[in-house]
Amino acid sequence: MSLPALLVRLTVATAGAYLAAAAWVAAFVAIWPGGTADAVLGGTVTAFPVATAAVLWAFAARSAARALAGAVLGILVLAAIGWLAP
Q: Which of 80, 76, 71 minimizes the C-alpha distance to 16?
């Protein structure tokens, strides 16, 4: 693996995992039917597996470009759900 590819994967694994977890919490809060405090707590607790999955995806993808594209697509979908949900 080349150094630029490794740096892209490390960036996706760190920043991508953080952004995916944050977008997950926003989406979770937006669609949770209960109270806001319960939604934030539930979203935060369940964000840990999402961040773990993002890190695993960063290094399991066939190429660094696929890792980046998959992470960006997932983050955008979660952010759209959080932004557009009633």
A: 71
Name the pTM for this structure.
0.90
CA-based nearest residue to 61, from 15, 2, 5, 20: 5
Residue with tokens 């740096």: 7
**Cα separation, 84 vs 86, whole angstroms:** 6
Q: CA 31 to CA 18: how far, in whole Å? A: 20
21-46 per-position pLDDT tens digit? 999 999 999 999 988 999 999 999 99
3-state SS class at 63 = coil
d(CA 57, CA 74): 11
pLDDT tens, position by position, 45-63: 999 999 999 999 999 999 9
Opening angle at CA 76, ends 71 and 78, nearest 5: 95
